[in-house]
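Phosphopantetheine-protein transferase domain, Spizellomyces punctatus. Tokens?
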Amino acid sequence: MPIIGIGVDTCHLPHLHSLLTRHSPWRLVRRIFTVRERELFEQNFGALDLHKPLSKYPNPEGGPHWNRIPPPQRRLLSYLGGRWAAKEAAFKALYPTYHLQFRDVSILKEQGAKPCIVLSPDIVEAANVSASHVSLSHDGEIAMAYVVFERSCDEQTCAKLTKQ
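Tokens:
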């Protein structure tokens, strides 16, 4: 299948933490997550009080110090940062032909399964997307995502592509 686009993006988690010390995590979740993503988010983080901004953990050298942030908040930041990076990577994979909104893209991961990317039906039809792939990675203060979209082709077109 021919590739429509490839996108990659990173999210610096201390920067995201800085943002979430001014606004509640729920504000971000409501803005960028689809209904299904919000349901999965609640399953994972429902026990945390996310309706108020996160606490600041100052670093004497300036900026938040990753190791001072409590593990539950680091897990939350990794989760949000990975999904943010995946949505941005999806935007890059389809740009400039298709202009996506945050809620056109869902990053879903059921318990024990690998993550998957789901586009809104309108985008799938317009871009003729037949397959999508997403890889999320977290390392210390960085979350990274890599996205690939493929389009199906008829037998004749696929034969031409494989000869090139």
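The helical segments are 13-20, 25-32, 35-45, 71-94, 121-127, 155-163.
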